[in-house]
Amino acid sequence: MNNDMNSNEETFESRFFAWLDRASRQPASPRTGDNGDPSDRLSAPPPLSDPEEIAEAELFDPDSFDDEELSSIYAETETSDNLPTFLEGQSDRLGDIPTVQQRFYDLIKRRLKDEIQQSPPLFPWETEMMAYDADISDVVSVDRVPGELWLPQLQNLQLPVPLPPTVFKSLLTRCQQVVNSSLREGSRLVEVVADLFPDSLPDLNYWTERVLIGETGRSEPKPLVNCPAYESANPTQKMVLSLLAAREILGSLTLRVSASHPRCTQHWSTAVGPLTIEAQYQPRTWNSQLRIQAHLPQGGQLQLQGDSSAARTQRPDRGSLSVELFDVRPDRTYSLEILLDNEASPFVFVICPTA
What we know:
Elements (H helix, E strand, L loop, with lengths): L1 H24 L3 E4 L5 E4 L9 H9 L7 H13 L3 H5 L10 H21 L46 H14 L6 H9 L7 H15 L19 H18 L1 E5 L4 E8 L2 E10 L6 E8 L3 E6 L4 E6 L3 E8 L7 E7 L6 E8 L1
Parallel strand pairs: 3-11
Antiparallel strand pairs: 1-2, 4-5, 5-6, 6-9, 7-8, 7-10, 10-11
């Protein structure tokens, strides 16, 4: 029994090296193509008649690789010190040799990678290569921190008790970061308030739901009864007050227009005077229009941004400005950036047209 196994291993080993030797050293012979011109190709080994030999040869077809890749395979195989070790105890199928098989797979992956880089595949809806912008996260990661100029709006919030300026600024900063996101209203509120209550996420989710239910008029948040001031409130009362303030701020940053209500006006108090924004929506079967008119308390600029278009205007002193976008689509969000003089970053509002 052992003699038969040793004989089979010796037969396989000798047949394997004989095949490699024939494939690597056989001189090239001219081959005539369809157009009658000879072309140099690696000549194939003599035809195989044994089914097992045919199966082995199909695993490593030399015609599928160029000369450089073939030379690399043969060189590594013939000079490998580990090959005899791997051959011991292996079956008589060439595809089971780890060294050769791994090299074969590496060459395939390298060839596929090179071909994809040279000619990337197209999406089903593409007819040619197109450049796409980088993916944009739902929560804007830009560090957009409003300055002191925007803080007087705190006095306009409709809350049971006033918020401290530090809490209002923290909420306003987070509202600027999520106002243009595609998150649902409840998720936005949680994102805005979470930094103030990092270890109370379950309670925060619960009271966010209660605040949203209270907004519909079905019930009111109960913890605010007999709440004297934010500073002396308990953690639950502070959480509910913060959620109510976040809802007020996001509402002040959002202008909603529709076919039945095509005009919306928003006022914002600043340290240099009131800011007034008016959105006008003209829905049409073609070329629908969104127009923004703003009265700035000092010099600055407006930029109205859509999916693939933008409009910008500016003036050096206080007064009115207007920008327009055309081909406006309902149920899309359009951002309005207002950059006043001496401010480091723009202040963002959103306009939401609906059908």
